[in-house]
Request: fold
Amino acid sequence: MLSVLDVLTNQKCVFVLVLCLVVVSLAASTESMDNDDVEEDNDEPFIPTNEWQQVKPGQAIPSGLHVKMDLSNGGKWAKLMDDGKTSQKSSLQLAPDANKEEEPAPNDIKGTYSIDELKQSLKKMKQEKKEASKETSEDIKSKFRSMDEIRKDFDALNLHQETDVEVMQRLIATLRLKTSDVKEKLAALQDLEYYVHQIDNAVDLFNIGGFGDVLKQLNNTDASLREEAAHTIGSAIQSNPTAQIKAYENGLLTNILRLISDSQQPIPVRKKCLYCLSALVRHFPYAQLKLYENGGFTELRNLYHQEVGETIKIKIIQLLNDLVTERQTTLLQDEDTDDKKEKLKQYERLPLAKLIKEDGWCKAIVDALQTDNHGSREMVLQAIKSIYPTCSQKFLEHGAMDAVLRIKMEYKTLSEEEISSNDPDGYYTLMHNLVSEVIGLLKNGPKAKDEL
Reply:
């Protein structure tokens, strides 16, 4: 039977074997120090056979067995020597790497190595690995630039990200230039309209002195610029109390009323001016009062009775409905705050109900039900509900009941078709319910909570 030294005659194998033993010894020592645990003895006897068996931790094995160790996954295996007999010497081997092909060992390595030499070799190998890793990291860094270098390049190209205020200043400068043509000014107004939708931007438009430049375009000889100027101002002040006050202080009300009352103005211009006027007076009682004092409600009535198209007529009814609704909403507020008291005091200064009744709006609202447009009908029906306390008798006198009964039959048919087709929208069903609600109101009057 061959001894261990006879098997490992090749000096390279001796080096690898001893090196691995040192690694295993060091790893085991480190693990023992880290855990401060002593491996407990396993009293279960190890019975060797000709097949490899894994040795359990702490399990003692007889001497003279063939032993191998798995350095990758850990573990130790043992079996009888190949001739089936135990020997006084143990045979130790490494578990083979399945992914690595064995290379023939050279026969020219001679000599033996001490433990110190093996440790130095290990240390040298680790150092070489660190140096290789460092070289790789430096190679990667050399292929890319740092963020500071990139920022410097952008600064050199003068690529500056404009703020919203800077953009608006540039657009206003276009409006101020005498050399700017209609196309350039129109594009500037359209871009400006996009920015002033944002509340802070709208306020900044006043702070940078740009509102006056937009307001001047209401007097431009080009109709498209007048239209877009009204559109831009309306977008800036809509649902923006600070902008509403500033716009009023800058004379917007009189400028808008002048264009609305001018029958020579193109319909698109008057339509945008109506939009701008609505944005100015909504939830602004003082502006509503000034609208009344400047004859604004009379001008709205005149506009309604001109050949301006259904859209403008419905927009006027919607404005009246909104003015009535905001008063009702303020009255229904639970908290009796100073703000509520002040608003109600301002609302009382404007005789809105009297204006609606005396200026013929009750009849105009009923006549508007003749439209075939579903959206317009919905707006008119909502107005009847809101304005009913003021126009209850007038509505009946002008045939409101007959009008709503007629359209109720239409929406009943449409609703049934909608339900049978499983239409998820359900719009016609909602319209049918709204018409039914208005009919109940005309028959029985408002409920207690609606009597304002």
In short: DSSP finds 21 helices and four strands in the chain. The longest helix spans residues 115-143.
